[in-house]
Amino acid sequence: LSACVQVKSKPSKENLIKAADANTQLGASYLQEGQLGAANEKLEKALRQNPKSVQANSVYALLLNELGKTEDAEKYFKKSLKLAPEDSQVLNNYGTFLCSQGEIDKAVEQFQKALLDPLYTTPEYAFSNAGACLLDVPDFERAESFLRKALQRNKTLPSALYQMAKLNYLKGRYAVSKSYLDRFHQRSGKSSESLWLGIRLAWQLRDKETAASFGLLLKNKYPDSAEAQKLIQAESTRR
Q1: Distance CA 52, CA 20 (A)
Q2: HEC string for 102-157
Q3: Residue 108, class by beta-carbon neighbours within 10 Å (0-12 exposed, 13-18 middle, 19+ buried)?
Q4: pLDDT tens-digit map of 40-55
Q5: Predicted structure pTM score
Q6: Percentage helix, strand, coil, to 5, in the chain?
């Protein structure tokens, strides 16, 4: 009988840490794709496997914010920062969260802390996020400075290209805005936000063909988007 008994050994701490890292990466990918249920499943599993995982806590905080649970999100951000107060990725994520809550100065402070890390491998994201945050103020001068630094690091970074297109549109530099938007579309495809910006640019540049083409694409591909509703409202007043 003893030969038939199987004893399940508990996973080692090292294996649990590796499993948590793998589930965190999967959760982050699902979150980026908008698959919130799948992201939640993987991230909660990662936190069970390694409650002290800095990245799992940070990405889970981003998910909670996406779900509208801002108080819980802040709790997990603070936990991840307590575990690793100088982690550039965590600081960048926390800055993004603070910006979404309208705490612009505190958000930029987090981005700047992240940029102090000489080992930060993707500082262009912190530069771009800081620029986007300041554009909401709007503080055009500081926003443009951060976005230019992002593009100096990575000239094809989609977020920075889109924000530069948006910034130049708001400043009335329509030809420059179109140039950045074209580069964004080449690199990242067309989103509801970029199509709506492209339509408004085409109106300013009196490019009826592009306005009609982008408008048709927006209504067909993203019919339930806020941008599609804005277009319908705008068309009714332009007639």
Answers
A1: 10
A2: CCHHHHHHHHHHHHCCCCCCCHHHHHHHHHHHHHCCCCHHHHHHHHHHHHHHCCCC
A3: buried
A4: 999 999 999 999 999 9
A5: 0.85
A6: 75, 0, 25
